[in-house]
Specification:
Helix content is about 55%, strand content about 15%. With about 110 residues, it is of the alpha+beta class. It has one domain: Orthogonal Bundle (Arc Repressor Mutant, subunit A), CATH 1.10.10.
Length: about 110
């Protein structure tokens, strides 16, 4: 018996929106820095220093990433801290790989 589960969790429209935001070099760098930072996240000022990106430009890119749910922000007094949404990263990876080798016959 052959088994193949064609259930897509993310959908093409959402995947395209997420991936289009990651197609920008600065946004990709922001995401990688936040992944590296883990659960503690990073202050916007730290990201700015790390990347050497002007504040206004960084704000623009962060807003794009927030808009598709890849990152979230919290305010800690005067510090704005960014966090990666690991569940969204996992959804993208799953979307890209969930049909891996589906063209091959899988035997139970």
């Amino acid at each position: 018996m052959y088994h193949y589960d064609a259930h897509m969790t993310l959908g093409y429209d959402n995947a395209a929106a997420l991936l289009s935001q990651l197609g920008n070099k600065t946004r990709l760098k922001i995401v990688r820095e936040l992944v590296r930072a883990g659960a503690t996240g990073m202050a916007v000022g730290e990201i700015q220093k790390k990347l050497g990106t002007p504040n206004s430009t960084l704000s623009h890119h962060i807003n794009h990433l927030r808009g598709v749910g890849l990152i979230r922000q919290t305010r800690e007094s005067t510090v704005l801290r960014c966090f990666i949404e690991f569940n969204k990263i996992e959804e993208i990876v799953k979307f890209l790989t969930e049909e891996c080798c589906a063209g091959e016959m899988i035997q139970d």
